[in-house]
Amino acid sequence: MARPTQEQVEAEIALLGGLSLEALRERWHALYGNPAPRSLRRDFLIRAVAYQLQVKAFGRLSTATKRKLREIAIAAREGRFDAGLIAPRVKPGTRLIRVWKGETHHVHVLEDGFEWNGSRYGSLSVIAKAITGTNWNGWVFFGVKRRPSRNKNASLEMRQAKAQRRASAALGGQEFAIA
Hints:
With 179 residues, the protein is α+β, with helices and mostly antiparallel strands. The chain folds into two domains: 6-58; 95-178, no CATH class. Helix content is 46%, strand content 14%. Strands 4-3-2-1-5 form a five-stranded mixed beta sheet, covered by helices on one side. Helix 1 runs antiparallel to helix 3 (42-58) and helix 2 (21-32) packs parallel to helix 3 (42-58). The chain is elongated, with a radius of gyration of 19 Å.
């Protein structure tokens, strides 16, 4: 059986919210090989099934990622949480594309920075300023980090779509464009 594509996995995850509780329990059983505990709430079942679908398609979290998540959890628990621990990360080899005033800009992510127009930069913000002439958060300008929604009552569908875009960006080595 062929490995599913990222788009197929995302489509399957998007459908989970429409499944009945019993259908979610069946998906759990098919993926985990044992019945879902009856005490699990529907929203947790959706997340757990979505996670396992991704594990089956793309593999588990790396040891380094698990370690980083543990560090963040410990820091938050001890009250020394630093947003720098969860700064956006993109893998070397990723190409960021941004259209600004009709001109398309390509930025290549390197091990130690970024390349744009044949020059190396240590910061996306410097590149964004060179493109626009004004100060920008480079992560926001290139769509790697979204500005927080001003609507606290944003629909579930909007939040799910944003989560899927973030997940796609986090996979690294993928090409994506923000217009």
